[in-house]
C-alpha cells in the first residue's frame, strides 16, 4: 500500500508539473505574440487541448470517483467548447473559423483574445478546484427526535412529490405532443397553453424532488425518485430534441449515487473506467438514433466513429458565442453587466406569479412571448440579443446561438473577470463535490441545484438557473408552512446540523 501511495504521489507531481509547463508556454507565446502571429495562435490553440489532457490526467491519477463532479464538469467543458473544433481541425478544417449559427472567421488579433479566454477560463477553474481546501463538516449521528422530524418531513414530501410529478408529466407530455413534429429550432416559436395549476406544479417539481432527495430517503424510495425524475426531466425532453437535458439528469444521478453509496471511498479501477466509457458510448448511440428517427432517415449504415464525430460536431459549438462576442460586443444596446444579471431580474420581477398579479391590477395580459422582436424589446437576454445581432434573419426564423458563461462574464468584466470567476467556480465545485459533508436538508437541496446546473454551464448563462432557484425557495417555504400546520406541536429546523445524510 505504501508503494501504491508513493506511485500516486509521483504521478500527481508529474501531472502538476505538466500543468505548470503548459502555463509557462502559454505566457511565453503571449509575450512573443505582440505582433499576433498566425503560427503562435495555432500553438496556443494546441496548448488549450494539452491543458485539458493534463487536467483529465489529474483526475485519473487521483481517482475519478473521488472527484466525479469536477471530472464531469471538465468533460462537459470539452463537449460544449472544445469538441467541435477538435474534430474540425482533424478533418483539415481551420481552427479560427466558426460555423455555428453563422460563419465567422476571426482576425489574428481577435483569435489571440479568444484562445486566451478559453485557456485561462479552463486553467483558473482547475486552479480554484485544486487550491481550495474546504473544511468539511463531520457526519453526525441523528437523534431519535431528529429522525422523527425527518420521517414526518418525508411523509409530506412524498405526497407533494407525487402531486408535482403528475403536474410535470402532464405539462411535459402536452409540450411533447405539440412539438414532436417540429424541429428543435422551430419549436421555439410555439407557445403551448397549459393549465395554470399544472404549470405551478411543474415549476415546483424540481425543488420538491431535491428536498425529497435531501431528506435521506431509503434506497428503494431514492431509486423511485431518481427514476421518475429522469423520465420527466430527461427522456421526454430527449424526444423533443433537447438531448443535453437527458445528459444533465444522468450526470446528476451518477453524482448522487457516488455520494449516497460512498463510492468515492472505493478504489477506481480500469474496470470502472471501462464501464463508464461504454455507458458514454451507448448514450452517444442513443442520441444519434433519436436524432435519426426524428429526422426521418435510417439509423443503420453509420460507424461508431462517425456517430462520435457527429455527436461532438453537433453538440459543440458554444465556443462560437465567445468568438462572436469578441467581434460584436460593441453592437449591444446596453452594457454587458445588464445582460449578465438579467436572469436575476427576470426571476424576481417577470415570473409567472408577478405577471399574473400585473395582469389582474392593470387589466392587461402580461403573458410570456415567443422568440422574436417582441421578446427582444421586453427582455435583456444575452443569448437572444447575440443571436439577433449576429444574424437577424436566422433569429427571427427561430434559430439561436445559445450562451456560455465565459462569453457573458467576458462581456461584463473582461478577461480578468473570467479568471476570477473561474477561480470562484472551481472552489464552488470543490465545496459541492460530496453531498455527505453538507449539513441540513435545505443546504443539501441548494447544493443539488448547483450541481444539476453546473454540467451545462459551459453552454449556459451564469445565472440561467435563477428561476429554478426561485422555485426551490418557493418549495422550501411551502414545506416549512405545511410542516408547521400539520405538526404544530413540534419545532422543525431542517436546516440544522444533525440530520442523517445519504
Please give a handful of descriptors for the protein shown.
19 helices; mainly alpha; disordered C terminus; globular; 2 strands; about 500 residues; about 70% helix; two-stranded antiparallel sheet
Explain the overall architecture.
With 502 residues, this protein is mainly α. It contains 19 helices and two strands. It has helices at 2-32, 38-62, 68-90, 108-131, 144-179, 196-214, 219-238, 243-260, 270-295, 304-315, 319-328, 336-349, 352-362, 373-378, 382-390, 392-396, 405-431, 441-454, 466-486, and strands at residues 97-98, 104-105. It has a two-stranded antiparallel ribbon. Helix 2 (38-62) packs antiparallel against helix 3 (68-90) and helix 4 packs parallel to helix 17 (405-431). The longest helix has 36 residues, at 144-179. It is globular and about 70 Å long.
The quaternary state of the protein chains shown equals single chain
Radius of gyration: 24 Å
Rounded mean pLDDT score: 83
Q: Please state roughly what percent of the residues sit in beta strands, choosing from under 5%, 5-15%, 15-25%, 25-35%, 35-45% or over 45%.
A: under 5%
Strand order of the largest sheet: 1-2
Major pleated sheet: 2 strands, antiparallel
| DSSP, total strands | 2
Count of discrete alpha- or pi-helical segments spanning 4 or more residues: 19
Helix amount = 55-70%
Low-confidence stretches: 494-502
- The secondary structure category is mainly alpha
Order of helices and strands: HHHEEHHHHHHHHHHHHHHHH
Our measurement of the CA-to-CA distance between the termini, rounded to an integer number of angstroms, reads 29 Å
Global outline: globular
Amino acid at each position: 500500500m505504501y508503494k501504491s501511495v508513493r506511485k500516486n504521489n509521483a504521478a500527481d507531481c508529474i501531472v502538476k508539473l505538466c500543468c505548470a509547463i503548459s502555463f509557462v508556454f502559454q505566457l511565453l507565446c503571449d509575450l512573443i505574440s505582440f505582433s499576433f502571429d498566425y503560427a503562435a495562435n495555432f500553438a496556443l490553440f494546441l496548448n488549450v487541448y494539452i491543458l485539458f489532457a493534463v487536467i483529465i490526467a489529474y483526475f485519473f491519477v487521483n481517482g475519478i470517483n473521488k472527484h466525479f463532479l469536477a471530472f464531469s464538469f471538465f468533460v462537459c467543458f470539452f463537449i460544449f467548447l472544445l469538441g467541435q473544433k477538435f474534430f474540425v481541425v482533424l478533418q483539415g478544417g481551420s481552427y479560427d473559423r466558426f460555423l455555428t449559427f453563422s460563419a465567422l472567421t476571426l482576425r489574428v488579433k481577435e483569435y489571440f483574445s479568444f484562445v486566451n479566454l478559453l485557456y485561462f477560463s479552463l486553467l483558473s477553474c482547475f486552479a480554484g478546484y485544486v487550491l481550495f481546501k474546504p473544511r468539511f463538516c463531520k457526519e453526525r449521528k441523528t437523534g431519535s427526535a431528529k429522525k422523527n422530524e425527518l420521517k414526518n418531513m418525508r411523509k409530506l414530501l412524498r405526497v407533494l412529490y407525487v402531486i408535482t410529478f403528475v403536474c410535470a408529466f402532464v405539462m411535459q407530455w402536452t409540450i411533447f405532443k405539440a412539438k414532436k413534429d417540429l424541429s428543435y429550432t422551430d419549436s421555439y416559436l410555439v407557445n403551448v397553453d397549459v393549465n395554470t395549476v399544472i404549470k405551478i406544479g411543474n415549476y415546483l417539481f424540481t425543488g420538491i424532488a431535491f428536498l425529497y432527495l435531501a431528506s435521506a430517503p431509503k434506497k428503494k424510495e431514492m431509486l423511485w425518485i431518481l427514476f421518475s425524475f429522469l423520465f420527466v426531466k430527461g427522456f421526454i425532453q430527449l424526444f423533443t430534441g433537447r438531448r443535453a437535458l437527458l445528459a444533465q439528469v444522468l450526470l446528476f444521478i451518477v453524482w448522487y449515487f457516488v455520494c449516497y453509496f460512498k463510492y468515492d471511498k472505493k478504489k477506481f479501477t480500469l474496470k470502472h473506467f471501462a464501464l463508464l466509457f461504454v455507458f458514454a458510448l451507448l448514450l452517444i448511440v442513443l442520441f444519434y438514433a433519436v436524432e435519426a428517427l426524428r429526422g426521418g432517415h435510417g439509423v443503420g449504415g453509420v460507424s461508431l466513429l462517425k456517430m462520435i464525430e457527429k455527436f461532438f460536431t453537433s453538440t459543440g459549438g458554444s465556443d462560437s458565442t465567445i468568438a462572436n462576442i469578441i467581434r460584436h460586443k460593441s453592437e449591444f444596446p446596453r452594457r454587458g453587466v445588464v445582460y449578465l444579471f438579467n436572469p436575476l431580474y427576470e426571476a424576481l420581477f417577470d415570473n409567472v406569479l408577478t405577471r399574473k398579479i400585473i395582469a389582474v391590477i392593470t387589466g392587461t395580459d402580461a403573458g410570456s412571448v415567443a422568440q422574436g422582436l417582441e421578446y427582444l424589446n421586453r427582455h435583456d437576454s444575452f443569448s437572444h440579443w447575440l443571436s439577433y445581432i449576429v444574424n437577424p434573419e436566422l433569429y427571427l426564423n427561430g434559430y439561436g446561438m445559445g450562451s456560455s458563461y465565459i462569453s457573458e462574464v467576458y462581456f461584463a468584466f473582461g478577461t480578468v473577470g473570467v479568471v476570477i470567476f473561474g477561480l470562484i467556480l472551481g472552489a464552488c465545485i470543490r465545496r459541492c463535490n460530496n453531498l455527505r459533508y453538507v449539513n441540513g436538508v435545505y443546504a443539501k437541496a441548494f447544493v443539488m441545484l448547483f450541481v444539476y446546473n453546473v454540467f451545462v454551464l459551459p453552454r449556459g448563462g451564469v445565472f440561467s438557473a435563477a428561476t429554478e432557484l426561485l422555485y426551490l425557495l418557493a418549495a422550501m417555504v411551502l414545506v416549512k408552512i405545511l410542516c408547521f400546520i400539520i405538526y404544530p406541536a413540534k419545532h422543525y429546523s431542517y436546516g440544522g446540523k444533525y440530520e442523517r445524510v445519504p
